[in-house]
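Student: Please help interpret what follows.
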Amino acid sequence: MEDELRKIDLIRERTRLSYERARALLQEAGGDVVAALILWERRGGETGAGRGAGEVVERLREVVQRGNRTMVRVSRGDQTYLEIPVTVGVMAAALAPHLAVAGAAACVLAGCSVRVQEKGAGREGAGSTPDSRTADGTTPA
């Protein structure tokens, strides 16, 4: 048991893998540390940091996809003035923050409502969906 732990520690020091992954690699190599390191290299030498970066990229991709499915709708009464994906709105606000502030002020002064809604929720009965909110964050009646 102690010999196995020493071998796992050696693998972890050289690869920065977790105990679980280092142990699995060691077992796959039949208990041979050098063979385990060669296996790790052949698989691309993915460290814990690389794995974390991949998870961040995947999470970012999910957020962008959800932003593309979620729409921002600016309207007054039955007239819709603007309907864009949240992702586009965030990018526009980041690139031109002064225009975003001016647009928000104009919207408030003109008495417009801003709704954020998932695409599949539909236009009718938008106030009853959990993903439909007005500019102040409340769900419309």
